[in-house]
Amino acid sequence: MESTYDLSIEELNLLEGCLKHDRLMQKRLYYKYCDAMFTLAYRILNDNDEANDALQDAFLQVFQKMDQFKRQSTLGSWIKTIVIRTAIKHLKNLQLFDSFQEQKHDSITLNNTEIDGKILEKVILSLPDGYRTIFILAEVEGYKHREIAEMLNISEGTSKSQLFNAKKMLKVILKNDWL
Questions:
Q1: How many Å is the Cα radius of gyration of the chain?
Q2: Among 136, 130, 129, 135, which Cα is nearest to 154's?
Q3: Which long-range contacts link 81-86 to residues 24+ away (Cβ below 8 Å)?
Q4: Between 20 and 30 A from 149 (CA), which of 25, 68, 159, 166?
């Protein structure tokens, strides 16, 4: 038997309201999570319009599948999983999720400024789609390779090698352009 997660009062109220199709509660749930989930979708897709589309598609799924939420995590974690899967589906539909080994980038030039969070974000966003997706899932979102492999329908070894290659590419870009 799988254990259930103790939800906060706020999450319980949101969940119950959304299960009753209460539009006000759905709106509250959306606004509680939309900024963080948009950022996540954007990091995967690297495109505002696509991230907005993925976010809307994901929240439609959230509201349609609310009765399938098994309380094995927080409501936010469950929503995050849906957003990640939806963004990855959008990425695949755009045919941007090409073979990682085929992508070659000799150099990436950014404005010659001091490395800070914004520059690092730009460098991460400049990675090829596959590298960027796995880097964000592993290093930013904290998913394990097993979970990433399951989400992307790849092997754990592929996830590990792509993360290694993403980090290697980031080091090269930073060394060549910023250090």
A1: 18
A2: 130
A3: 81/151, 82/58, 83/37, 83/40, 83/41, 83/54, 83/55, 83/58, 84/40, 84/44, 84/137, 84/141, 84/151, 85/58, 85/151, 86/41, 86/54, 86/55, 86/57, 86/58, 86/61
A4: 68
Q: What share of the chain is helix, strand, coil (3-state, %, to 5)?
A: 70, 0, 30
Q: Which tokens belong to 59?
A: 């929240």
Question: Would you say 63 and 26 are in contact if contact means Cβ atoms under 8 Å apart?
Answer: yes
- List, in order, residues 6 or more apart from 156 with CB less than 8 Å away: 145, 146, 148, 149
DSSP tag of 141: S
| Closest CA relative to residue 121, chosen from 33, 38, 39 | 39
Q: Is 179 helix (H, G, I), strand (E, B) or coil?
A: coil
Residue 56, helix vs strand vs coil = helix
DSSP state of 114: -
- State the residue for tokens 């959304």: 18
pLDDT digits (tens, 9 = 90+) for 21-78: 999 999 999 999 999 999 999 998 988 999 999 999 999 999 999 999 988 888 999 9
Give which of 137, 160, 118, 116 is closest to 43, Cα–Cα.
Answer: 137
Claim: this prediction has a pTM higher than 0.85: no
Compute CA 85 distance to the chain's CA centroid, rounded to the nearest angstrom: 8
